[in-house]
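Kindly review these tokens for lecture notes.

. . .
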Amino acid sequence: MSATDRLNVSFTAAVCIERDGQLLMVQKQDRRWGLPGGHLLKGEGILEAARREAREEAGVCIVPYAILGIYHFPRDDGSSLCIVIRAFISQQASAEAQDAEVRHIEWKDHRAVRALITSDDLYRPEYVAQNLMAWLEDKLIPLDTLQEFPGSWAG
């Protein structure tokens, strides 16, 4: 196998931040709704990325408690892998957008989440709709399924 046969892979983390049966959603500048999330930075773990994205996009500190899902998406130039974390806010604070790509944030109840799934108002609907359906179905994968190793690994 040559280096050109290797798959170009992008890793992302997204967060379902929950409170009293509601989900914190972010509205992007294009007015479409999604979950806080984004690409992992070099040397960053999934949970670290989830915490950073929650801070950057929603202005909240989180406590992860489960995995909602692990999603793979083929791309023309490679592949994307996203792990979606379920979390609570670690302290009482008003959520507030901290990132320029976020226009507005809002708590959505089950009815509002269901309505979004079938609307044209989702950011990356092919991906976000599946996350929202899994959240509505209360999908839980134990958090300790994710094994993160500190430091770098070269193999």
